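Demo today. Your pick:
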Amino acid sequence: MANIVPNEQFLKLWSQKSIITVNQELRLLFLRQRKNQPDEIQNLLEAMDYTLSSGGKRLRALLTLATTEACGGKFEVAMPGALAVELVHAYSLIHDDLPDLDDDDYRRGQLSCHKVFGNAVAILAGDCLQSLAFELLLSNWKGRRAPYGSLKAAYILAKAIGPQGMAGGQAMDLAFENHSPPLAQIQDMGKRKTGRLLSAAMAIGATLAEASIQKINIAAKAGLAAGLAFQIKDDLLNQEGDPTVMGKSVGTDAERGKSTLAALLGPKKAAEAARVWAASAKKISKNLNSPKLDWLIGTMVDRKS
């Protein structure tokens, strides 16, 4: 009997239900964090929660959940990994918006964390979200022992956000301001800034499902290609997106002299490059036989925010 391919309505419903579950688990996580804490750090906890509960696509969590399923793992096994990548993503947003980095006053239609709580508390909130991600990955989950592969998943996440990944990409972004680096360096920056975390989200999903090394590598490669497509689309939206839909300012990359593929190639060629990288990610992920992953990758270049 042939496999039934889910239609888009089914995939959207799966996405919506999964996002609700992820948001509920994040809320429960923060309720636990607030217990028996002194008044002096309540402001810090509020700053963490402010960014984490501000909505978002939960794309990284969905990639983890879908990859675990594609590799034969259970939803509950994937959940600590899904929450961990969202915690790290939230930390990165707080730090990216700071005046000494991207200097953005708005995020997801509301004031950035540092505009509400101040720079110092925002930095600490980001630090705490990052450490909480690793605590979650490496601890018992709802009375169950941490699943096999949790240590490796933590290693994958650590590599994705350090100098070889997100932080390194942000450093390149700063260094390239008002410069004209070649295409290869801008692509490398995009893979580090965005691709490594999406790659980690998928590799962690495969790892928690106890998949083979081959499948983990496939997941990582697909995520990296998808991440570059996502970054190019981000750069295009900064050029020509609708700020009311995006919930943040547009045109800021040009104002700051940012080096992006959208600026280097122009909108038309950059959009084509995003489609090419997304197609590459889909081709790689076909080996995991997951319509959900295929659909999620497609949404990265079709989105309006």
About this structure: The chain has a mean pLDDT of 93. The chain is about 70% helix and 0% strand. The longest strand covers residues 106-107. Residues 8-302 form a domain with the Farnesyl Diphosphate Synthase fold (CATH 1.10.600.10).
